[in-house]
Structure formats: C-alpha cells, structure tokens
Design brief:
With 197 residues, the protein is of the alpha/beta class. Helix content is 25%, strand content 27%. The chain has helices at residues 24-42, 57-72, 124-134, 179-182; strands at 4-5, 16-23, 48-52, 78-80, 112-120, 141-149, 161-165, 173-177, 186-192. It has a five-stranded parallel beta sheet, sandwiched between helices. Strand 3, helix 2 and strand 4 (78-80) form a beta-alpha-beta unit. Helix 1 (24-42) crosses helix 2 (57-72). It is globular, with a radius of gyration of 16 Å.
Length: 197
C-alpha cells in the first residue's frame, strides 16, 4: 500500500522533488492542539467517538484519543470507518482493497462523532465517509479532524480541526508517513521535476 494520500491515483509516476514540511514533533504538537480543541468544543469527552478513515486516519484517531484521555482521565472510544464502497470513483478505480469498519461498543447513535483523516483534499473521501456513517446510525453531530488541509476542494466540505494548512498546487502530492505504518512521522510535499511551485 503506497503512503501517498490526497491525490488522484491514476496519475503516472514522475520524478519528484520533495520538501519536508512537518517532522515528528510538529505532528505531535498539532495532534495535542486538536485534542484540546475537540475537548473545548465538546465540553468534555462524554459521548465522544473518534472514527479514523483508513489507512492513516486510524492511527491518528488513536493518538488523539490517547491525548484526550490524558487530559480528561476518561477513555474515548475509537473505531475505523471504511468508505471504499461509498466512493464516487469506484467505476474509475474498481480494484480498491476493502478496509475495516470497526465501531466501538455503543456505536454512534446520539453521540458526537469526530471523523479523523490524514489529508483533506477534494472532499470526496469525507462525503463518502458521511454516507457510510449514515448507514451505521444517527450521530448527534459529526465533526472532522485532519492532520493536513491541502486545499483544492471540489465539494463544500470544511474541517472543524486542522493540524496544518498546506497550500499546494494540483500537480503536487502530499505524503504522510506515520510511525505505526511507515516507521517514522513526517509530512512532505512532492513536486514533479520541472514543475514550478
């Protein structure tokens, strides 16, 4: 599974010039800030559920839950939400691997659900997540937390909590690496060789 996220998968590979924009301490600080913002807006951790969108949204959701528990002293339920079958590009990319949907005990009915993803780009993955969530229950409210917002929205979707806004061009790729899956924490922007920033 390639760790490149937030870009169309049909683009042919090209030589890339990469610049690192976030290191492990930056990611840690961003997640700590998001955890405090979630708690402030929710007025505590009661009835809070974090659902990570595979693949990298899941470890990010677990990290957020750990930070919230450290502040509140209350465990926060964490799960994962596979959006594969709800995507609007299945006919273009029919060979997608299914990921896990794993709801915590108690489900999502009547609770505050925070969807967690690594990169917010066009907004289509989040639209699919909202459709998938609608089939699982009716939360009291749904919020969105992302590590990186790179812009270029195609749908009217906005994150409630953002670790870092990274203005990018369409030709650039945002690569998120996480310790749990990649052995390191970092975010880089890759620009195809010969393309001006």
């Amino acid at each position: 599974m390639t760790p490149i996220t937030g870009t169309p998968r049909s683009r042919p590979a090209a030589p890339q010039a990469a610049r690192r924009v976030l290191e492990a301490p930056d990611i840690g600080r961003a997640l700590t800030r998001i955890a405090h913002e979630v708690l402030e807006r929710a007025k505590g951790a009661d009835d809070l559920v974090l659902l990570g969108i595979p693949t990298r949204g899941v470890p990010l959701a677990r990290r957020l839950a750990a930070r919230i528990e450290a502040v509140e002293g209350t465990p926060v339920p964490v799960g994962s939400l596979d959006v594969t079958m709800y995507r609007d590009d299945l006919r273009l990319h029919p060979a997608r691997a299914l990921e896990r949907t794993d709801l915590p005990p108690g489900g999502v009915e009547g609770r505050t659900v925070v969807l967690v993803d690594d990169v917010l780009y066009s907004g289509r993955t989040i639209r699919a997540a909202l459709d998938a969530l609608g089939d699982l229950g009716r939360p009291a409210r749904v919020q969105l937390a992302v590590l990186v917002d790179r812009g270029h929205r195609e749908l009217p979707i906005r994150a409630d909590y953002v670790g870092k806004n990274l203005p990018t061009s369409i030709s650039e790729r945002v690569r998120v690496l996480l310790e749990e899956q990649d052995g390191e924490d970092s975010v880089t922007i890759e620009t195809p060789t010969g393309v001006a920033r």
